[in-house]
Amino acid sequence: MKRGQGLGLAGLVLFLTVLATPVFAAPASAPAKEKGNILYREIHFALNKADLSAEARTVLDEVAGILAKNPKADVNIIGATCDIGPAAYNKSLSLKRAEAAKQYLIRKGISADRIATAAVGEEKPRYDNSDPEKKKGNRRAEIFIRLPEKKENKEIILSSYVTVVNDDGEVIPNLPASNFSVVHGGKKREIVKVVFEGDNAPVSTVLALDKSTTMGPAMNELKKAAKLFIDNKKPNDEIQIVAFSSDILAGSGFTTDAEALKAAVDQLKPGGYTRLYDALKTGAALLAAKEPPRLLVLMTDGKDESGLDKPGSKATLDEALGLARKNHVTVITIGLGKDIDFEVLDTIAIATDGNFFYAPTPEKLSEIYGNISRGILHGRYRIDFKTDEESAKKGGIVAVKTAQGTIVGYK
Fold first, then answer.
1. CB atoms closer than 10 angstroms to residue 259
2. Domain contains 344
3. Which of 131, 352, 375, 387 is the most interior residue, by most CB within 10 Å?
4. Which residue among 118, 146, 174 closes a domain?
5. H helices then E strands: how many in the chain?
């Protein structure tokens, strides 16, 4: 805002009149207390004076506090006078009054570039100059505080998809809404509806499979486990295979054709290093165009590395995770063997409402893939809940709690 440029009232204004010497009581015609994002304050001066009274300093202390709490707010101070004295003198005096208020705010720590001043002299009386008592009110400085516009944070309804299983990995169906509670954006949310969809709704899934050199001894077990997952899918579930090592192979796209998917799995050959984060980012990007729920099952036996003490991926973990969260992709991570980065795989799962599974040996992979496919593809609850628009834009964890079994949640 340029110096000398008025803010223009866009609305209600917090009104507070400050008494100075001589005493002046603001009449009912004073400005409204607040309007829109504009706050209003008014201070008064003695005849022919630009000195700040104790009452004026009290008001300016309040203004400084408002500006300190709202670093993007600015202020316009307009000095004025009554009609006693020559017009040129009054114009000069009114500017001195505005500048006196400005300098006080600067001493209180408010940056000068947030404060504009202007002078109207006797040209814009707010009170009746023909009344000796009322004209005292025109010896004033008007203070307009412009706050940042507040965007309306609308209430919306989101859906979260969860699977509830018992200790044996069996799906627990048909739980009532009273069994669930939802936390989103750090707040407990009202549940609108809980529906056990079972086998009804399709799921879009990316199977991201590590084919780096170290996967050689485990490759047959991985292929067996991945094909089991494919066999367990519903007819209308779409899956895309992403194989990764030193390169990222995204195959021919999403398909419901189980035989084509299993043929793609059979083509996997080990070799190269591990671009784990690039695989995560690729899977999240591929799923962005699909309707939710969106699932990425990410399996690896190692860390994101090139074998030269350098990262394997072009993308960072934060970049890949950010895209997954932005696209509301749930990531289930599977770590094989002792050389994995437990912390990273757990972080990916937690940040995307997924889960982390550990396979100490290759033979454990089929059990894990089978449990995931049976639970998520065939035993899913949809929980509709109320939240706010800002929380939805930021994304984040939807924590769904139930007294029944354990839970895998995604949205």
1. 9
2. yes
3. 352
4. 146
5. 9, 18
Same domain, 65 and 168: no
Q: What is the DSSP-derived secondary structure letter of residue 37?
A: T
Beta bridge partners of 155: 388
Residues 206 and 111 in one domain: no
Are the beta carbons of 292 and 159 closer than 8 angstroms?
yes
CA Rg value for the chain = 33
Determine contact, residues 163/403, Cβ cutoff 8 Å. no
Residues 348 and 260 in one domain: yes
The tens-digit pLDDT sequence of the chain (411 residues) is 333 333 332 322 332 323 333 334 444 444 545 566 788 889 999 999 999 999 999 999 999 999 999 998 999 999 999 999 999 999 999 999 999 999 999 999 999 999 999 999 999 998 999 999 999 999 999 999 998 877 777 888 887 777 777 766 677 888 888 888 888 877 888 999 998 876 667 889 999 999 999 999 999 999 999 999 999 998 999 999 999 999 999 987 999 999 999 999 999 999 999 999 999 999 999 999 998 889 999 999 999 998 777 899 999 999 999 999 999 898 999 999 999 999 999 999 988 878 899 999 999 999 999 988 877 766 778 888 988 877 776 655 556 666 655 454 444
Q: Which residue, among 240, 239, 244, has the nearest Cα to 215 in the 3D structure?
A: 244
Clarify whether residues 218 and 322 are in a common domain: yes
Q: Which of 31, 35, 44 is nearest to 80 (CA)?
A: 44
Same domain membership, residue 161 and residue 108:
no
Strands (E), 155-293: 155-165, 180-184, 187-189, 191-198, 204-210, 238-244, 248-249
Q: Which residue type occupies 359?
A: A
Taken in order 384, 386, 389, 392, the sign of the CA dihedral is: negative
> Which tokens is 132 given?
């000796």
- If phi > 0 it is left, if psi is from -120 to 50 it is alpha, else beta; for residue 158 that is beta
Are residue 207 and residue 130 in the same domain, yes or no? no
Asked if residue 301 lies in contact with residue 279, where contact means CB atoms within 8 angstroms, the answer is: no
Query: In this structure, is residue 360 part of a structural domain?
Result: yes
At 278, the amino acid letter reads D
Supply the range of the domain harboring residue 200: 155-410
The residue among 90, 118, 146 that closes a domain is 146
The answer to whether residues 187 and 74 belong to one domain is: no
Residue 202 lies in a domain: yes
In a domain, 18, yes or no: no
In contact, 44 and 139? CB cutoff 8 Å:
yes
What is the token pair recorded at 300?
């690896």
